Amino acid sequence: MRPTENNTNNEGDRMAATHTCIFCEIIANRSPAAVVYRDAHCVAILDAFPLTRGHLLLIPHQHQQHIEDLPPETVAYLFQLGARFSAVLRQNGESEATAVVLNNGKAANQHVPHVHLHVIPRRSGDTALVVWRYMTRFVNPWSYIGRNARLARQALTWKTLLKDTALAG
Questions:
Q1: Is 5 a domain residue?
Q2: What is each CA distance from 118 to 11, 83, 127, in whole angstroms?
């Protein structure tokens, strides 16, 4: 079920209008990102600091920091998309499993104060690598080298995977 267009929260709209939010900038096409999917309610981008190859962020258009401040339809739609992206990854052999994670607030390690759902491809035996990347992804100078080219290649892979699914668009 897609959220209806008139399900907006005026407080969230005011916050988006008065604070600079990188996700709001990406949604409005004012900031670059490796976008793999976009519809009227949500955008899916590759995480600029991925824990694994193909790590996605699903971002609702409506700006809210906490999930409980979003309309229930938007929350449901966000998690439905997460499930569909997880299925695409598994069906195409890109992952054995996924971690679907939502950090809800600063104390929960939410780095951007705009609700977003992580869909992280996982494989057997990758725990040490994921933990290492989690601990170093913002401080590792090597992570910046060639990042944009890597993200562009991964976005192309995602678009190819999505081409023959109901998520194509």
A1: no
A2: 25, 11, 16
66-99 as b/e: b if 16+ CB within 10 A: ebebbbeebbebbeebbebbbebbeeeebbeebe
φ, ψ for residue 56, nearest 5 deg: -105, 155
pLDDT, tens digit (0-9, with 9 covering 90-100), for 45-81? 999 888 888 899 999 999 999 999 999 999 999 999 9
**In 10 A of CB 154, how many CB atoms?**
19
Domain extent for 35: 10-162
3-state secondary structure of 125: coil
Q: Is 116 a catalytic residue?
A: yes
Q: Give the tens place of pLDDT for each residue, 2-29.
A: 565 444 444 444 444 556 899 999 999 9
Q: What is the CATH number of the domain that holds 77?
A: 3.30.428.10
Cut 0.90: pTM above it: no
Instruction: Pick the catalytic residue from 55, 114, 116, 118.
Output: 116
The first and second tokens of residue 156, run together, are: 């192309």
Q: How far apart are CA 9 and CA 37, in angstroms?
A: 24
Count of the separate structural domains present in the chain: 1
| 169, part of any domain | no
